[in-house]
UniProtKB/TrEMBL annotation:
Keywords: Aminoacyl-tRNA synthetase, ATP-binding, Cytoplasm, Ligase, Magnesium, Metal-binding, Nucleotide-binding, Protein biosynthesis. It comes from Flavihumibacter fluminis. Tetramer of two alpha and two beta subunits. The gene is pheS. Its main location: cytoplasm. Belongs to the class-II aminoacyl-tRNA synthetase family. Phe-tRNA synthetase alpha subunit type 1 subfamily. GO terms for molecular function: phenylalanine-tRNA ligase activity. This is Phenylalanine--tRNA ligase alpha subunit. It is found in: Cytoplasm. Mg(2+) binds at residue 254. Gene3D superfamilies: Bira Bifunctional Protein, Domain 2. Residues 111-338 form the Aminoacyl-transfer RNA synthetases class-II family profile domain. Pfam families: Phe_tRNA-synt_N, tRNA-synt_2d.
Length: 343
């Protein structure tokens, strides 16, 4: 017993000489003396080796040492906590915090929102629909029956056949679904992602984004279409941009046209982007074909309408002078950070 008591006194002297200067050294002390595998616990294990007539005396010494070690721990702990609290004195919590990096919206989202904002000011509402579509809403109802040659203009991703289900090739499927509801007049724009089986390059991708528009009412004319698109282009690109319409063909509109604007990169003088013509095509449009109206249960003798559609990527490339369409989908932070100020 005398040897163990001398050892306890040595531990007392060791503890008294310790300097605890931080949480790490305090935790080291706790593990050494007070943990389940620490010195205090092991000393209590020696109780079984003490003669019965000396157990009471040894137990008193041992309990005193345990109390001593625990009090030292608590005192050091409170001292460290007090020092930590004093370290915060004088901090001005009203000062602004450290700046955090600001993210940015994707350029496609920026232009999409701007396009929708312009058409909302003209009384258009936004309508959206499914990206997985059946053949009727994507093709047949749009005057594109099976084996129609115009279907070759859109190389389609088919998911199943008989019945045909596919990834939509345009957002015109939303227009068909809205017309089928029979709630007239209709004045909507349809944004969304579309898919076509094309080789990925600087000018094409297997998916892209569109905004299409539809207006159906009594006595709607091509003049209404032109004035709507004139307003849209000038709001988006500025008052100085020049506009022209060229006759075209789409099976779901008649008459049909494509609209060009003067090249923003060369100001109409001619460059590689506009193929030295001074003009860049931005959208297709036309009066809704009477057969499309009839397919949706609308009386083509009473109602007329116009429709238009544009690729958001093409508009974005022109607006921000981007020369590679693939940049929109590679998630390069260096490219995306350029649009932080556009939020």
């Amino acid at each position: 017993m005398e040897m163990i008591v001398k050892q306890i006194e040595a531990y007392r002297e060791e503890i008294s000489g310790l300097e605890i200067n931080g949480p790490a050294s305090l935790e080291e002390y706790r593990l050494k003396f007070l943990s389940t595998k620490g010195i205090v616990k092991s000393l209590f294990g020696e109780m079984r080796n003490i003669p019965a007539d000396q157990k009471k005396e040894f137990g008193a010494v041992l309990n005193a040492f345990k109390q001593f070690a625990e009090e030292k721990y608590e005192n050091w702990k409170q001292s460290l906590e007090s020092q930590s609290d004093q370290g915060t004195v004088g901090v001005d919590y009203t000062l602004p915090g450290d700046p955090l990096p600001v993210g940015s919206r994707h350029p496609i989202s920026l232009v999409r929102n701007e396009i929708l904002s312009i058409f909302r000011r003209l009384g258009f509402s936004v309508a959206e629909g499914p990206e997985i579509e059946d053949d009727w809403h994507n093709f047949s109802a749009l005057n594109l029956p099976e084996n129609h040659p115009a279907r070759d203009m859109q190389d389609t991703f088919y998911l199943s056949q008989n019945p045909d289900w596919l990834l939509r090739t345009h957002t015109s499927n939303v227009q068909i679904r809205e017309m089928e509801k029979g709630k007239l007049p209709i004045r909507i724009v349809n944004p969304g992602r579309v898919y076509r089986n094309e080789t990925i390059s600087a000018r094409a991708h297997c998916f892209f984004h569109q905004v299409e528009g539809l207006y159906i009412d009594e006595q709607v004319s091509f003049a209404d279409l032109k004035q709507t698109l004139y307003f849209f282009v000038q709001e988006l690109f500025g008052k100085d941009v020049k506009i022209r319409f060229r006759p075209s063909y789409f099976p779901f509109t008649e008459p049909s046209a494509e609209m060009d604007i003067s090249c923003l990169l060369c100001n109409g003088k001619g460059c590689n982007v506009c193929k030295h013509t001074g003009w860049v095509e931005i959208l297709g449009c036309g009066m809704v074909h009477p057969q499309v109206l009839e397919n949706c249960g609308i009386d083509s003798n009473k109602y007329t309408g116009y429709a238009f559609g544009m690729g958001i990527e093409r508009i974005t490339m022109l607006k921000y002078q981007i020369n590679d369409l693939r940049l929109f989908s590679v998630n390069d932070v260096r490219f995306l950070q350029q649009f932080t100020a556009s939020i």
